[in-house]
Amino acid sequence: MESQHRSVLLEEWLSFLEDQPLSTVLDLTVGAGGHAAAVLEAHPEIERFIAVDQDQSALELAKERLKPWKKVTFVRDNFAHLSQILKDASVESVDAILIDLGVSSMQLDRPERGFSFLREGPLDMRMDQEAGLTAQEIVNHWSEEELGRVFRDYGEEKLWKRAARLLVQAREEKEFETTRDLIEALQPLERAKKKRDHHPMTLIFQGLRIAVNSELEVIRRVLPHAIEVLRPGGILGVISFHSLEDRIVKKLFQHEASDKQDTRGLAGLFLEKEPTIKLLTKKPVVAKEEEIQMNPRSRSAKLRVVEKR
Questions:
Q1: Cβ-based neighbours of 67, under 8 Å, separated by 6 or more
Q2: 3-state DSSP call for residue 287?
Q3: Given the DSSP bridges, would you call strands 48-53 and 72-76 parallel, antiparallel or unpaired?
């Protein structure tokens, strides 16, 4: 099973921490604990390590994997609540933060979570199993216009109008309950798949997952807080897996690293400002071919890293 849960860009993340004295470290998406274990192994000087995940199943795996280190505090929460997480832990600033975005192989591999179109399961897709909104609620009750927006904006699906129309027509016959129900309703999209880079179900399921978990909104909310709580010289790393996530991270990092405040809406003026971070990766770090061979999921991974000024 270990091969199925490889931590992407692990060596690359460790390289950015190599010369850093670390006292307090925060992993906001600890998952099965792969990145966390490697950081703790490489930095025995760490005094506190806060491991956060909203997925209870992932947190249980992390607790088992990180059992040798008594300095780890485990928190089940959404990383959007960063300020409260640190307040509860009585921590004011940290030396390094990692945010590993997107769905994990653990979630994809479990049919009962409903994340993958390759396995039949309930239309769930919640990263936090106690959250209210599910994919089943969306596909059965959201309007055609709302469904189209999800597939267009979150899935970047070119046939978003057709996909929304197909679902609305199919649910008039019966309610969607499983991933198989959804795939059957969208069967007409299959004919176009040979001409495309992605299987159409990949983008449809991506869009639904992002909508269920409010993933993009959460990223926009957490990044400024993460920069704020870093000590001067502290390191923030973000691993993303699709262009929507990476675009948000890139733009925010560029803005925070710039000494100009973009005010093009005000007569084209650019006002000076103090940069809050230094870009350590002008372009995102991507996986080497050897890692992609061992873990195909790493093919789409991008790591961006900044240092607090």
A1: none
A2: coil
A3: parallel
Concatenating the DSSP letter of every residue in 23-55 gives SEEEETT-TTSHHHHHHHHH-TT--EEEEEES-
In the block, tokens 């993340």 appear at 13
Residue 241 forms part of a structural domain: yes
Domain region containing 68? 2-106+215-308
Q: Based on the domain organization, do 128 and 207 belong to the same domain?
A: yes
Q: For residues 209 and 220, state if they share a domain.
A: no
Tens digit of pLDDT for each residue in 240-270?
Answer: 999 999 999 999 999 999 998 865 656 667 7
Q: Of 213, 238, 271, which residue constitutes the final position of a domain?
A: 213
Cα-only R_g, the chain: 20
Instruction: Give, in order, the Cα–Cα distances in Å from 301 to each of 224, 284, 285.
Output: 22, 9, 8
Task: Tell whether 14 is covered by a domain.
Answer: yes
Tokens matching residue 5: 């849960």
